[in-house]
Predict the 3D structure of the following.
Amino acid sequence: MPEPIIFLDIDGVLNYLDTYQKTNPMRLFYNRCLKKGLINSLECSYLIQKLYLDEECLTNLLWVINTSKAKVVVISSWATEKIYPLIQEHLLKMGIPIIDSVINNNREDFIEKYIFINDVTNFVILDDDYFKKYKLYPNNFIHCNFYNQGFDYDMATEAIYKLMQK
């Protein structure tokens, strides 16, 4: 069986609107710490971004990874931010096997090129956005919902099914 790959967006997949609302008090606290000079801007950004990762969405992703033995390619705009190495390290420590990340914000071209160069045949795309080139992969795209639940149990079940049938 070909190695399964998960093309992972973060915002809207590993979090959703409720995540932001629940973490607002801590975000305000970290920003106050920044203003008082208790933490630097990179630390503040990292702590806030880490807050945005929803535990249930992460659990669902880890279930897919552990069941399918998939590796992860991050396609999020987060991967282009200065704090991404800290976020990546955090995700790796949680058991998310990141093997690559998008190097610019053009994720649809990145995915197309990555699939071609690496001869990827077994993959899913987890994203809350829909890009034109995703039409090339109708059986591989799972549309997450930022306004509802992010990457939920039903989507995780669908991802496992798609990755295990190859």
